[in-house]
Amino acid sequence: MKAFVLAERSDAARELCAGARTVADEVVLVAVGDMEVPAACADKVLHVALPEGAVFDDAADTVIAAFDAEQPGAVFAEPTKHVKVVAGKLAAHAGASVITDVIAFDGDVATNMYFGGVGQKQQKAAGSVAFYTVGAGVFAEAEASGANATEELAWVAPAKAVKLVSSKPIEKSGVDLFKADVVVAAGRGFAEKDELKLADDLCEKLGAGLGCSRPLTEGVDWLPTEVYIGVSGLMLSPKVYVACGISGQMQHMVGCNRAGALFAINKDKNAPIFKQCDYGLVGDIKTVLPALTAAL
Ligand SMILES: Cc1cc2nc3c(=O)[nH]c(=O)nc-3n(C[C@H](O)[C@H](O)[C@H](O)COP(=O)(O)OP(=O)(O)OC[C@H]3O[C@@H](n4cnc5c(N)ncnc54)[C@H](O)[C@@H]3O)c2cc1C
Predict the structure, then answer these.
(1) Which of 42, 46, 194, 286 has a CB 3.0–4.6 Å from the CB of 29, allowing a cystine?
(2) 9 labeled part of a ligand binding site
(3) Are 148 and 40 in contact (CB under 8 A)?
(4) Ligand 1 neighbourhood includes 271 CB (under 6 angstroms)
(5) Is residue 112 marked as binding?
(6) Which residue, 79, 83, 95, is CA-closest to 255?
(7) How many angstroms does the Cα of residue 187 sit away from the middle of ligand 1?
(8) 2.130.10.10, 1.10.260.40, 3.40.50.1220, 3.40.1390.30: which CATH number matches 182-295?
(9) Which atom of ligand 1 is nearest to the CA of 230?
(10) 51 in Cβ contact with 155 (< 8 Å)
């Protein structure tokens, strides 16, 4: 069986190729734009060069043409917003359904989350092509391999191209949350934007990356949407995760519950996060965080 891997980030491409290798005889990575292709990760790399002005999502028709030519039996997709657009169109073209948010595989049985992470289900893909979106860490133990024989795909112009209306640079903290050993995450326990300085100071001491729960991005816009963690955001597996002022709703926790050690700081001793963390500290972030930063 042949497997397609669709990814936007190099690390995700490597991990998904490694995972695809556990079930497929041939692994084909579709690399769109200027993604750095990981060394020796797939049998074949199909490269899609984006024409001037085109964005990742516009590559869907080119990927569909490659899919028709290659006829893979499985597609493993990184769950980013752009990859999901392409994977969704590809699945619709193939007449297949997508098993989203897979958190574990046992052979061809996938365990995935639904209802925003509240439920889990074990299922096999229906139909002739299996489509999965798979978060970081699921295939962390698998080994990628392959000769990376590279082919350039001919661009198939989309019937309706994305029209860029405006753009603004993403504020980058300088730390790649996928690569950070330690992630500090801020939640609605931070009452004002200025209080995020407390989390920043802790990050600096720990060499950590700063992430957050969704409410700190959408709505208040204190942090960019690219750094919120959870079922609809980033799914991380750092060595240490420090959740500050986060209640522990499942939609957030599925993005961090594969951390090596999960610390929680919350002023409510009954907060659900205390049932899910390895170490819990009941206290106000305004006093705990400065004390912690000073003590380190
Ligand atoms: C379909 C769907 C998808 C979703 N996807 C995501 C997702 O990907 N990621 C995500 O994060 N959310 C997601 N959500 C939202 C999610 O359900 C929660 O609403 C959100 O995670 C709550 O964020 P929070 O824990 O920061 O806020 P809250 O739930 O409001 O918790 C704030 C916590 O801070 C504590 N606190 C308050 N003040 C202090 C203080 N001074 N010191 C210490 N502790 C304090 C409180 O006791 C409380 O426990 C999704 C929701 C839906 C319906």
Answers:
(1) 42
(2) no
(3) yes
(4) yes
(5) no
(6) 79
(7) 6
(8) 3.40.50.1220
(9) 8
(10) yes
Determine if ligand 1 sits within 6 Å of the CB of residue 284: yes
State if residue 215 touches ligand 1 by the CB under 6 angstroms criterion. Answer: yes
Q: What is the pLDDT of residues 192-222, one digit of tens each?
A: 999 999 999 999 999 999 999 999 998 898 9
Q: What is the rounded CA–CA span in Å between residue 243 and residue 256?
A: 9
pLDDT at 151 over 70: yes
Q: How far is ligand 1, taken at its centre, from the CA of residue 212, in Å? A: 9
Q: Whose CA is nearest to atom 41 of ligand 1?
A: 284
**Binning pLDDT at 50, 70 and 90, where does residue 175 land?**
confident
Report d(CA 4, CA 20) in Å as an integer: 8
Q: What is the pLDDT of residues 52-99, one digit of tens each?
A: 999 999 999 999 999 999 999 999 999 988 999 999 999 999 999 999
User: Which one of 212, 236, 267 would you pick to mutate in the ligand 1 pocket, going by the greatest count of ligand atoms within 8 A of its CB?
Assistant: 267
**pLDDT for residue 117 is more than 90:** no
Q: Which CATH architecture has domain 2-152?
A: 3-Layer(aba) Sandwich (3.40)
Distance of CA 126 to the CA centre of its chain: 24
- Rounded to whole angstroms, the Cα distance separating 228 from 221 reads 11
